[in-house]
Specification:
- The chain has 129 residues and is an alpha+beta fold.
- It has one domain.
- Strands 1, 2, 3 and 4 form a 4-stranded mixed sheet that branches.
- The longest helix has 20 residues.
- It is globular, with a radius of gyration of 16 Å.
- It starts with a strand and ends with a helix.
Length: 129
């Protein structure tokens, strides 16, 4: 029997917390985030060796809005969101989202060299205890 991930549909509390953390980490971008869930999950299956795994994909889409971009659909690094996600994992998703924004806005996900660019504010959250 394959291992199954993200079996339970994320609760509205989990989605709210996730969006709030993304918005906090990307506050320098003046970003708002919205997650749309499916009514029933889509399945993603994989097997290399052993029993394999199945991921229930509850996320239909994640869209962000900033003063420069409206309703921009983004991808996250993780296969889903759950109450077990650590803030560090959400930070990783925020970095991935920010890179997608910079690619859309400036044609490159390369890091800006200007020290005062809002891009660098995300790293301030790594320095906090």
């Amino acid at each position: 029997m394959p291992l199954r991930n993200y079996q339970r549909r994320p609760t509205s509390e989990v989605v709210r917390h996730y969006c709030k953390m993304i918005e906090k980490f990307l506050s320098a971008q003046k970003l708002s985030a919205a997650v749309t869930l499916r009514e029933k999950p889509a399945e993603a299956r994989a097997k290399i060796e052993g029993p394999g795994w199945v991921n229930d994909r509850w996320i239909e889409r994640i869209a962000v809005t900033t003063p420069l971009v409206k309703d921009f659909e983004v991808r996250i690094l993780h296969l889903g969101i759950s109450e077990q996600m650590a803030d560090g994992e959400i930070w990783e998703d925020a970095k991935h989202i920010q890179d997608q924004l910079y690619l859309r806005l400036y044609g490159t996900a390369q890091h800006p060299w200007a020290k005062d660019d809002p891009y660098w504010k995300l790293w301030d959250f790594l320095r906090r205890p």
